[in-house]
Amino acid sequence: METHGEPVISLRGVRADLGGRPVLRGIDLTVARGEVVALLGANGSGKSTAIRTIIGQVPLADGTIELFGTPRRAFRDWSRVGYVPQRTTAAGGVPATVTEIVSSGRLARTRFGLFGKGDRDAVREALERVGMADRAKDSVNALSGGQHQRVLIARALVARPELLIMDEPMAGVDLASQEILARTLKTQVEAGTTVLLVLHELGPLEPLIDRAVVLRDGCVLHDGPPPRAVGQHALPGHDHVHPHAPAGAEPIRTGLLS
Amino acid sequence: MDFLNYAFMQRALLAAVLVGITAPAIGIYLVQRRQALMGDGIGHVAMTGVGLGFLLSTSPVWMATAVSVLGALLMELIRWYGRTRGDIALAMLFYGGMAGGVMFINMAPTGSNANLTTYLFGSLSTVSPSDVNAICLLAAFVVLVTLGLRRQLFAVSQDEEFARVTGLPVRALNLLTAVTAAVTVTVAMRVVGLLLVSALMVVPVAAAQQLTRSFAMTFAIAVALGITVTVSGTIASFYQDVPPGATIVLLTIAAFVVLTALAAPLARRRARAATAAGPGGDPAECVIPAARGTGEEISA
């Protein structure tokens, strides 16, 4: 293991616009190796935009982003990064099985997309880690919201990344799946994986989190130990569900109405 | 099998088979990325290419390929940069392409609207040996891309944001999809025509989906269905004096209706099997949960 404390993600003065409107107004954020950092904030505070700027989906208006000490534009070592997007972005128009979805996460480790036995083993192992191995041949459309989320986590883990970036992994996820997700994440963190995740509240992941960064209106409001939940919010099982589907997107399959 | 004795029918059937393979093969990725109507747009733009081919007295097939590839690249660029005004720009591209085709073909000494009609709705019996050569080359390119890069194209079409983080060249793959779709349109142009080509890209995929759970199986069934309808439509048009393009498209839609009707009981049986599979699946009936546990029993 390399020296602890070396920055894995480093943002300096990051600005980003969406549709001409400034969404990030100069964010500084550093995540050190082995750290688990939660990005918190209200709707529209810029949490998801910050994450999507880091992975290059939203263009950078100003500032610098480094991944593993390399400027993001020059960064090529993507098998070191595992990404879990919001579940709403991951719906295709053609049926696909759980195995097919998880296999696409393995592309970072294969040459020209050629799969060998090692790759197939890695897919099976990732599915076992999230308790979805028995659903490997099922269509993802037949899964509940929580099961779908577990598949997306397996897809991120299948390349065995050193850094996990997750956008609201607990939104719209049933309690059983939340438990499994929390346990999977705990195993990863114990093995030394660095984690940056957007959360609406700390919830069942609270014991894992080293540091919380709170955003408001595209600025960092707080960077330090995670805030303690108080009152109603502190009760076990308290769970806000705020799907952030953009207008016209696929409805979220929570399993409640669909 | 007397239709096989005619050289024009041999050419027509070869072209039909190639269209039956290529149109659903690229169409599945368009459906997956929810751009099912892109083939229709490219078809409109390709009309300018056909018109230019007549005007410059070159092969309309190759000219249509060049123009529709350019049009498809332009559409992909509009998708990146013109997020807010994108649909207006696309509309202008489509109708400009159509108007350009009509204009050029009327300016051409040998051209008339009657020539254009054979490209709009297909004209299998007039497929020339040089057309067949062009169609074979173009179809080989489409098959190579859609099968050789299937994992990459699947990842980009399923979830572009995630594909970026696996290090895939997302922009290059998007452009390649657009170019491949444009090439497929010109392959299919002589068989079903520019205005009906999109149907062969989309409907076999939609029909196959009624039966399948996996992408691989959807791909296989869509291509098998594509070949079946193009070949049977071509043969039907030989015996009955019906236009092959329209026959093929109507057969495809009929296949969709039949498969949808067959799929309903299949889906019901699958749902029952899933509930019978026990824990892990969602119960079909309402179950009132016991008092909320500590989560220990859930991990069992």
Describe it.
Chain B: It is found in: Cell membrane; Membrane. Chain B: Belongs to the ABC-3 integral membrane protein family. Chain B: Its main location: membrane. The complex is a heterodimer of chains A (258) and B (300). Chain A is built from five helices and ten strands, in the order E-E-E-H-E-E-E-H-H-H-E-H-E-E-E. Chain A has 258 residues and is α/β, with parallel strands linked by helices. Chain A has a single domain (7-228), classed as Rossmann fold. In chain A, helix 2 (98-104) packs parallel to helix 4 and helix 4 (145-157) runs parallel beside helix 5. Chain A is globular and about 45 Å long. Chain A starts with 6 loop residues before the first strand and ends in a 34-residue tail after the last strand. With 300 residues, chain B is mainly α. Chain B has a domain at 2-197: ABC transporter involved in vitamin B12 uptake, BtuC (Orthogonal Bundle), CATH 1.10.3470.10. Classes of the chains: A alpha/beta (258), B mainly alpha (300). The interface between A and B is large, with 49 and 43 residues.
Which key terms come to mind for this protein?
heterodimer; A: 258 residues; alpha/beta; Rossmann fold; six-stranded mixed β-sheet; four-stranded antiparallel β-sheet; 5 helices; 10 strands; B: 300 residues; mainly alpha; ABC transporter involved in vitamin B12 uptake, BtuC; disordered C terminus
Weakly predicted, low-confidence segments of chain B: 278-283, 290-300
Molecular shape of chain B: globular
Biggest sheet character of chain A? 6 strands, mixed
Order of helices and strands of chain A: EEEHEEEHHHEHEEE
Major sheet details of chain B = none
CATH homologous superfamily caption of one domain in chain B: ABC transporter involved in vitamin B12 uptake, BtuC
Share in helix of chain B: over 70%
Q: What's the CATH architecture name of one domain in chain B?
A: Orthogonal Bundle
Quickly count the domains of chain A: 1
CATH architecture of chain A: 3-Layer(aba) Sandwich
